[in-house]
Write a structure and sequence with these properties.
Its cofactor is Mg(2+); Mn(2+). It is an enzyme of class 3 (hydrolase). Belongs to the PP2C family. InterPro entries: PP2C, PP2C_BS, PPM-type-like_dom_sf, PPM-type_phosphatase-like_dom. Its EC number is 3.1.3.16. Helix content is 32%, strand content 26%. The protein has 387 residues and is α+β, with helices and mostly antiparallel strands. The chain has a domain of 235 residues: Phosphatase 2c, domain 1, CATH 3.60.40. The strands form four sheets. Strands 4-5-17-16-10-11 form a six-stranded antiparallel β-sheet. The longest helix has 21 residues.
Amino acid sequence: MSCTVAIPSSPVFSPSRRSLSCKAASASPETVSISSPAPPAPTAGSPLRPFGLLRAQIREEASPSPKTSSAAASAPAGSVLKRRRPAPLMVPVDGPAAAAAAAAAVAAVESDPRNEVEEEGDEFAVYCQRGKGRRRVEMEDRHVAKVALGGDPKVAFFAVFDGHGGNSAAEFAAENMPKFMAEEMKKVGGGDNGEIEGAVKKGYLKTDEQFLKREESGGACCVTALLQKGGLTVSNTGDCRAVLSRAGKAEALTTDHRASRDDEKERIENLGGFVVNYRGTWRVQGSLAVTRGIGDAHLKQWVVADPDTRTLLVDQHCEFLILASDGLWDKVENQEAVDIARPLCSNNEKASRMAACRRLVETGVSRGSTDDISVVIIQLHKFSASS
């Protein structure tokens, strides 16, 4: 009887394989002789000695010595060789040129005139400042102050837009929402509160629709105030906020659309989406912390542009209105903002209103805000029903 048997070359199953032949002795069919390379002679000691020999063999195979390399080159065709990790690919970088390009990019951002913006009128003041901790990121906030919306001196429109993922959506909304809002307001004429709120909603939705047609990335949160004689209509999407000073008491006129809100979570989940807590912040689809806004095409199924809107009567107790982006509200409470601004707004002077806007921004920055901050303060005495 003759046969060919493949067995490991060591008692502990070395990864190398060798073909060994065995033949039965002609004199006795029960006797089998095995021809193979003689293993290293065991020495006296522990029965685990073969494992020590195996470790030594592995270390020898892994050694990059010339002796090992020549042995591998002359290894028989049937043996298995150990693969080595290739050397890392080094991509040359022109250090001085790269540093100069980075410095130029930073300088361009830092010199942008929109990093700090002031605007004021007879009844309002605006101050916007780019976040100091955001190198190589452009100012993403925008604002609107139209004291005669669509040429109508009886209607004023103010807004703050807080962009994310770039400034494209905020820029587009600031340039186009006043126009869309004026068109919708003309359709309702002197309508009731319900018709005016419907016109505002259409203005938001049209702004969102037209921006999405541009197929640009990014989005924007909004807060807007539409003022007519005796009436104030405030709307928002996202986490920009409107706070009214009513005889010195702060009254939040909007509620932030954050993914942490139970009703917003439920709405998104009913639409087939999900909200998860990522590094301490609830996010839509694990991405965006707000649940409503202009743009955000990749999340449009869940992040809608439908605003929450509220209309109220402006009476003699309504002193001023603060519109601001979340860069302020993340560091300053509603009542605190009113307390800071009220002493400077009581005399209804331009310089004092601007000082109030600046002081609010400075307070947020001093408390660690690195986000863009935009603040609009509107005196309401002119729009009071009793004035």
